[in-house]
Amino acid sequence: MSIATTYRTCPRSGLQFESQAEKLMLANAVAAVVFLLIGGILAIGVVLTRWPSIHWLEADTFYKVLTAHGIDMLIFWIIFFEIAVLYFCSSTLLRCRIATPKIAWAAFALMVVGAVMNNVAVYQGGSSVMMTSYVPMMAAPSFYLGLILFAVGALVACFVFLGTLVVAKAEKTYQGSVPLVTFGAITATIIAVFTIVSGAIILVPTYLLSIGVIDAVDPLVYRTIWWAFGHSSQQINVSAHISIWYAVAAIVFGARPMSERVSRGAFLLYILFLQLASAHHLLADPGVSTEWKVVNTSYFMYFAVLASMIHGLTVPGAIEVAQRQKGYNKGLFEWLRKAPWGNPSFSGVFIAIVGFGFLGGISGVMMGTEQLNLIIHNTIYVPGHFHATVVIGTTLSFMALTYFLIPVLFKRETIAPKLAQWQPYLFGLSMYGFCLVMMGAGTLGVSRRHWDMAFQGAALAYEWPGAAYMMMGLVGVFGIAAIAGGAIYIYVTVGSLLWGKKLDGGTVSDRTTPVPPTAPAAAVQTYGSSRMVAPGSFVLALIFLAAFVLYYFINWKYLSQLWGLS
Amino acid sequence: MTAIAPPSERLWWKHPLDRVEGLWLAIAFVWCMVMFFMMVYWHMYGAQNLSTETYKTTPELFTTKTQAMVDQYTVRTELDGAYPVVAPPPGSDVYMIARLWNFWPILQLEKDQTYRLHLTSMDYNHGFSLQPANINIQIVPGYEHVVTVTPNQSGTYSVVCNEYCGIGHHTMVGRIYVK
Fold this sequence. Notes:
heterodimer; A: 566 residues; 14 helices; globular; B: 179 residues; alpha+beta; 5-stranded mixed β-sheet; 12 strands; elongated
């Protein structure tokens, strides 16, 4: 079957881009960066208002800005970028044409319309309901309709991705199994389909409620189903950014997975278990039984935690094995010392791995432990946790991948490469600080989504301890530093796209060159070795475990000093 | 080959694990099990477990019960009569209304005594965030949540609303005295 399209082989990476897929990736990535820019500008308002000594915006503006910041970052920036990643993982890695490009463009258009409609609804006021939009607090109908249109677009894009896999298989553009990174993208897509369907189940009735077709949506049912959407969407991110970790390890180091079986098995655990762990958002709720909470959060969530702990070892492990094969064999950590710390794709991913594990992962398990949730629920510890997962984990990984894509996909030379080198450090490390002080303030009880910790105008105000004020001040300082880091990313990306020196796109052909079959490596068989092939990564993993165990029991000690509750 | 190419071994799932991976897998699995048993252990031997006793309710029904408690056990009022301070006997049912934008009434409890605290919301979702103890419970409209509490220290506690509930959210603070 011949379809009128062309394939370009990038001279810098050897990757092959089909022209339709390439344009779609570009469009989705650009839309993503636009929403990152909007979300970043909104972040200035959030941070400078929660910084107690500045307390910039008025209450109504603050809640409006906070609602828009959450949705633009958590939904629009991330999902637009993920769609680009999905097309990359299917069409580019499998060297095939994209299935139904016209439908893919229609999906893109729907997503743009939905995102703009939702943003307009929020800025008009009357829809300051936060990302979670818990009923019976209602937003304007166009708020829900925008989200629904965006979700439908994203769902269609998921099916284009799946269709592209079928095309690759049918047209035999590769042999054997799909690459690990594509496998990770498939898990992300399966979770995405579940997520979007859950979103539809709850947002469609809420939309109908907002236009008066139905009378009520039960608040507890809403929370339960909304979180099947809200939490699972974070799981799409995890699958996507971990795929990117493996991809960057492969691109920068030529690393192969330590064992395909373990890494793929870990991805599979995400599909099987994490959606159900969305129950951990309801641990402080009435109406759900203890058994339900324990089963969902432990049995189901811990298998997903297990999966993340596996990737936490196998990604650095794969890098270590590749580095050791290049001769960086001295001691435990020469492989890491001699890593290309000046390459923002590597440094970004490494900072993301460490931050996602130590800050995002550990704090997530604390919140997801039935009893420990009592000292965390709805405090600013919660945004501290999810900025560590979706900003340090997901966003920083996307940024790291972008630095690879600028010359390869955009065909431009990076402007300001020095700035790009420093960007992951500035952004990542200030986000480390930001998350830590938020968790600190949350441990003292400070509320999330709260305009004024001084309780101006309250009849029975509460006085937070001085340490809480100090930490919220530091939230402001680290927040501004991180926003500066984000601004540099946007400057480098958009600047390179507009003004970067044009690079040679490589040879264009009207036929695909299938992925060459690779012969099993005869000389170096790293599979199934009985040696400790990655001792350095193992030691890092043990340090992680020690921090995890210690912090876990510190929290139980803290809990044990509270009022008796039964 | 690398992670962005198809695996070179077609039967990749038959390969045994690396020792590093196998060992870590076992350690991580054991740790997950420890965390699971910790939750169950705390239900048996720990003193802080959130009750799941819940009833469907309506604003009218809950207001009636709260008003009955206020009428019977008010010991004084604060803020020019706006807030009755209610001191129900130990072991009894105590009620706290969450609504835009206050918690009503003020409760006065005794240290080391146990009470059945009933919580619900008259309108939107609210948060019961007891400070400085830092106990945080979701309050959902239409659902009456009965939490058994045993204050372990005397003092003045604030109840901060920590679920966003509109423009006056930051003024929504209640109070509990423990004697």
